[in-house]
Amino acid sequence: MKKIETHKDNVFAIEGKGVEDFSFNKQVVSVFDDMVERSVPFYGEMQRMTAELAADFATEGSNLYDIGCSTATTMLALDKAINPERAHVTLQGIDNSAEMLKRAEKKLADAGLRHPFRLLESDLHKGLMIENASVVTMLLTLQFIRPLHRERVVRDIFNGLNENGALILVEKVTSEDTIFNRLFIDHYYEYKRRNGYSEMEIANKREALENVLIPYRMEENFELLRLVGFRHMEVFFRWYNFCGIIALK
After folding, report:
1. Across-strand partners of 91?
2. CATH architecture for segment(s) 26-248
3. N or C: which end of the chain has fewer CB within 10 A?
């Protein structure tokens, strides 16, 4: 398998320049895989756990949606984890960034997947079409949807899931207790320093994300899932201010 070229993330090494709101533009896409590997704790393990859980709930002839599929890392993990002899599924990737989807398509084509796939460009703020889904994965995506639209997005997912279907959700979260909230954020920034990010890069990215990434408390995510009708929910991953939740219809 030919490996697509990924550059080192230095998007926010911009001393003396104004910081614009974060967006998944061409510059970010070119370094995205490096960015998440160095910015998201246990990213590889998070992907492995997501794929394992998805394989538990994937059913024959159904669709598996990855919402906010970015460069298709999760789709590749899903394809590897789900044996076509047990469940032949179609992988559906949705993202609002055309640049992300270009890179995703190349990675998927180069990988030679065992399952058919489809990529769709869609703005989640304008609605979401999900159908015949046994699994929906949404890793670090809901947090980028404006709070006003989150209930509708999660309801669209719920309505498109088959009975006993699973939503696998990973989000940054905040803590209601300000002491722990500050501690967890401090430890997260220390994690980024260990991975080579400078104080300037950390500060600039924090500023760029301020009005773009709006995390909920873990309890708020659970309340949202209950509101739209999910009946079973459990945390499967937690690292300071990162949380993975699986919810069943």
Report:
1. 64, 117
2. 3-Layer(aba) Sandwich (3.40)
3. N
